[in-house]
Design the sequence.
């Protein structure tokens, strides 16, 4: 198990290095660091002097190395628009996005597991068919359409829920303003969470149902029945534990999709998070901020997937005990 | 009047599979008895309906199959009258099963100990400690070295032969009166097949358990079972003492099987040496299922399904076998 964790961490570091190369490449090709510092109205000679001073005429590997070193110290350049270090800007926006992603993930887990299992066990039932049919519709509606529909019904027509912003926030610790602790914050969280959930939930219901159905047909489940085990133990220990393995893996990967979709959702709901910030950064050609977003999101993704892999290792004895196939 | 009632009595058992546009009968009116501590071999080539019969006995035919007729009496009681909960308490408790492929039967994410203890706990109130003790003693019985350590290990840490020993140990846990072993050595390495079979035989004798041994291998079954039922295309072709089946087979199919048995050489081709193949479920002929491959067939064979009848001291389902004790078959 220890070797397994080390291996996963090495992989994670490697992935981060690749991300840094991509980030660096974007910065090199699109960005203009001189502009970030000086603005536009500076003479050519002054600019060249500054370029030299900043080491922008050094060979690429040297510059990349400097970029990585800066990143390790939390320095990813300055945001041209905010006139602040990009990392600081990101960190101030991150809580909004992370809270949205967290509630969505919890909702997806809480709903997809029981619905997926139910649909696998009672595949012929009316409810299971409804869930499966609904999930097909769910995956095929684009998220912005869901969002606009939700806003129209609940905010404009019924006027039950707010449709933009995060509502009243409470600073739970320095730099982290949370919407979890006020009614207004929770109400504002509602519609964006539902739209994000509508993308992920159908996928997970279908995945869990498929995996569970397959597991229920295995020899070891048949053997568990032949040993006279109680049905609940067969379903929730024997079958579900094996269903979980592939679901965990997909779950880690899908987190990336989820974060990608926050860009759309946050924009529609004017949610002040990293996603909507990223869209603005692209519009403003705020390269440092774009790159910082990329690196930061990459880091979250890599860390979560490493943790997920380690959890997978704990659930799967083949890995935990270091055994072969 | 009646002699001691059999442990297991299967009466006219039929199992059908409901397919999209038809119903296929995989097991068709199978009857046999099995006394306490007795060993019966159920032999036949692949697809004959042996496994389905085994699962039907514990009412575990998987969908789309279902028991379409007949009865199963266990310890004198009709299993059809049992509630699902009572039936659960028979499975793995009074009747244990051993499956064919030990690589597939144990759950990969649970330890051997967990799977043994849960089996015990499913059937009796027992503390974890006691259950563990019992599990250890059964692992010793099947000659698993250092069982304490083994209890905490996962299936993938064992070889195929070891896993089948564990499955046998699990079968012993509840001291059942019947073990149904479905091809218990077929999936194993040839070199250890005999060991496992010997172990199973020894344990059945020691613990006075009856054994229903399902196999396609007449040679194996003749070494273990006291009686043999030969199954062909969902029906029993012949049933008798091992001695009678091996030395004086009556049914043309049994005779063919025996002729095809090489003296230990060329084990592989054995069953294929009767020309032709067993008809699939869809293409069973109206009369005797062996008709197409039979050298003795007569006109009646095509029309009428031969019934399993007592002839010359054994049970045979063939129109052409004459009973020496008179009562001519026409
Ligand atoms: N799940 C199933 N669906 C349809 N037919 C089945 C199923 N399981 C078994 N059968 C049919 O039942 C017949 C007997 O199968 P089985 O009892 O497994 O044979 P064997 O004697 O080799 O153990 C097979 O010919 C097969 O066509
Ligand atoms: S009944 Fe007829 S066809 Fe069938 S085995 Fe006997 S002789 Fe052959
Ligand atoms: Mg079989």
Sequence:
């Amino acid at each position: 198990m220890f070797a397994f964790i080390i291996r996963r961490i090495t992989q994670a570091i490697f992935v981060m290095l690749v991300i840094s190369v991509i980030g660096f490449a974007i910065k090199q090709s699109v960005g203009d660091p001189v502009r970030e510092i000086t603005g536009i109205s500076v003479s050519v000679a002054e600019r060249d002097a500054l370029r030299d001073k900043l080491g922008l005429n050094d060979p690429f590997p040297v510059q990349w190395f400097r970029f990585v070193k800066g990143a390790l110290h939390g320095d990813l350049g300055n945001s041209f628009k905010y006139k602040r270090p990009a990392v600081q800007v990101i960190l101030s926006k991150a809580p909004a996005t992370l809270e949205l992603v967290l509630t969505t993930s919890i909702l997806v887990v809480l709903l997809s597991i029981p619905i997926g299992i139910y649909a696998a066990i009672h595949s012929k039932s009316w409810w299971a068919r409804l869930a499966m049919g609904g999930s097909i519709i769910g995956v095929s509606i684009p998220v912005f359409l869901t969002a606009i529909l939700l806003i129209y019904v609940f905010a404009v027509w019924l006027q039950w829920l707010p449709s933009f912003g995060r509502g009243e926030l409470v600073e739970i610790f320095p730099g982290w303003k949370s919407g979890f602790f006020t009614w207004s914050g929770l109400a504002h969280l509602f519609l964006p969470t539902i739209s994000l959930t509508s993308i992920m939930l159908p996928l997970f219901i279908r995945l869990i149902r498929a995996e569970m159905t397959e597991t229920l047909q295995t020899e070891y489940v048949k053997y568990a029945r032949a040993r006279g085990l109680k049905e609940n133990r067969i379903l929730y220990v024997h079958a579900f534990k094996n269903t979980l393995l592939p679901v965990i893996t997909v779950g880690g990967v899908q987190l990336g999709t989820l974060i990608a979709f926050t860009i759309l959702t946050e924009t529609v709901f004017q949610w002040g998070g990293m996603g909507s910030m990223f869209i603005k950064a692209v519009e403003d050609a705020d390269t440092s901020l774009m790159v910082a977003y990329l690196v930061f999101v990459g880091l979250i993704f890599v860390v979560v997937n490493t943790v997920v892999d380690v959890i997978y290792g704990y659930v799967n004895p083949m890995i935990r005990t270091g055994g072969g196939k | 009047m009646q002699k001691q009632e059999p442990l297991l009595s299967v009466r006219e058992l039929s199992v059908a599979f409901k397919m999209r546009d038809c119903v296929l009968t995989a097991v068709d009116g199978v009857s046999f008895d099995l006394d306490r501590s007795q060993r019966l071999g159920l032999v036949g080539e692949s697809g004959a309906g042996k496994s389905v019969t085994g699962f039907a006995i514990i009412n575990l035919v998987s969908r789309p199959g279902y028991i379409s007729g007949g009865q199963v009496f266990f310890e004198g009681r009709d299993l059809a009258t049992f509630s699902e909960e009572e039936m659960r308490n028979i499975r793995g408790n009074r009747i244990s099963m051993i499956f064919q492929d030990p690589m597939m039967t144990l759950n990969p994410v649970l330890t051997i100990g967990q799977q043994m203890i849960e089996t015990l706990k499913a059937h009796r109130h027992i503390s974890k400690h006691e259950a563990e003790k019992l599990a250890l003693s059964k692992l010793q019985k099947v000659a698993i070295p250092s069982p304490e350590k083994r209890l905490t290990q996962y299936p993938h840490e064992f070889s195929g032969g070891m896993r089948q020993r564990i499955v046998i140990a699990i079968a012993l846990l509840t001291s059942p009166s019947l073990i149904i072993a479905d091809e218990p050595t077929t999936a194993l390495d040839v070199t250890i097949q005999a060991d496992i079979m010997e172990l199973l035989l020894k344990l059945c004798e020691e613990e006075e358990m009856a054994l229903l041994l399902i196999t396609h291998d007449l040679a194996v079954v003749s070494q273990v079972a006291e009686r043999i039922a030969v199954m062909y295309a969902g029906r029993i072709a012949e049933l008798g003492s091992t001695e009678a089946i091996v030395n004086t087979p009556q049914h043309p199919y049994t005779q063919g099987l025996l002729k095809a048995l090489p003296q230990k050489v060329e084990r592989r081709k054995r069953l294929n040496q009767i020309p032709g193949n067993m008809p699939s479920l869809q293409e069973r002929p109206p009369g005797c299922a062996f008709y197409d491959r039979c050298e003795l067939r007569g006109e009646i064979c095509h029309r009428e399904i031969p019934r399993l009848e007592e002839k010359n001291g054994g049970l045979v389902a063939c129109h052409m076998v004459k009973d020496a004790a008179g009562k001519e078959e026409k």
User: Anything to note?
Assistant: Residues 86-283 of chain A form a domain with the MetI-like fold fold (CATH 1.10.3720.10). Chain A has 13 helices and four strands. Residues B 252, 288, 290-291, 294, 296-297, 301, 306, 318-320 surround iron/sulfur cluster (ligand 2) (CB under 6 Å).
